[in-house]
Design goal:
With 112 residues, the chain is an alpha+beta fold. It has one domain: Glutaredoxin, CATH 3.40.30.10. The protein contains three helices and four strands. The longest helix is centred in the middle third of the chain and has 16 residues.
Length: 112
């Protein structure tokens, strides 16, 4: 199965040191699910300098969590956007429990 990219795009919001985030990215890569990754870890080891893009992503994550507290619980967060700009938001603990469940959700609803 492959993501129907003519209708949908997926954005993952992840953290640099997050086993669940790494697992979902690996599962998506292995199953050829295309996605854009937005890391929200502003200060990345080993030097902990601030990555400006990640810092902006972190603010976007906080805004999303404030706007949708019932849908955004933990990382990773999946944002599925259709061609009309409508978004569905799923996060670990609020939309799925495991990376396998996230993949199943994508395959069942957004793949051809």
């Amino acid at each position: 199965m492959k993501l129907d990219t003519s209708k949908y795009k997926i954005t993952l919001m992840t953290e640099a040191v997050c086993p669940s985030c790494q697992e979902i990215q690996q599962l998506f890569d292995n199953n050829l699910i295309k996605y854009q990754n937005k890391c929200i870890t502003a200060q990345i080891p080993p030097d902990y300098t601030v990555n400006q893009e990640n810092a902006a992503n972190r603010w976007e994550f906080h805004d999303l969590a404030d706007k949708h507290p019932d849908k955004v619980s933990n990382t990773p967060v999946m944002i599925i956007e259709d061609v009309d700009g409508n978004q569905e938001i799923f996060s670990a603990g609020a939309g799925y429990e495991t990376a396998e469940e996230a993949l199943e959700l994508i395959q069942k609803n957004y793949c051809i």
